[in-house]
Design a protein that fits this description.
The longest helix is centred in the first third of the chain and has 13 residues. This protein is globular. It has four helices and four strands; from the N terminus they run H-E-H-E-E-H-E-H. A hairpin with a 4-residue loop joins strand 2 and strand 3. It has a single domain, classed as 2-Layer Sandwich (Alpha-Beta Plaits), CATH 3.30.70. It is α+β, with helices and mostly antiparallel strands and 104 residues long. Strands 2-3-1-4 form a four-stranded antiparallel sheet, with helices on one face.
Length: 104
């Protein structure tokens, strides 16, 4: 029992298993028009499982979500956006490079 707890703690500390960070870029429909639109997305999407960081850009009409792929999926995040009134199109979904993980 002690051995299992020790291994689990070590895995959490070292970030092994379950720290598969990805960066998802979406375009929302309807478009974001103002800071209020951005805040609506940020304040609601932060509660979706695995979400680590959310950035919005009115100029490019893109929402960038850094998330843990072991806790959520692209489809799950799109459903979260749908709940708050936005259909989305995936622009990209890429793994975070290990160097980027260490610097955060």
């Amino acid at each position: 029992m002690k051995h299992t707890i020790l291994i689990t703690l070590m895995a959490l500390i070292l970030g092994i298993g379950g720290n598969d960070l990805r960066v998802l870029v979406l375009t929302p429909t309807p478009q974001m028009h103002c800071e209020s639109c951005e805040n609506k997305i940020k304040s609601n999407m932060r509660f979706e499982k695995g979400v680590k960081k959310i950035e919005t850009n009115l100029e490019t009409q893109q929402v960038t979500i850094t998330y843990d792929a072991s806790k959520n999926t692209v489809e799950g995040l799109q459903k979260g956006m749908k709940k708050i009134g936005y259909d989305t199109k995936v622009v990209s979904d890429n793994a975070v490079k290990k160097e980027e993980k260490k610097s955060k």
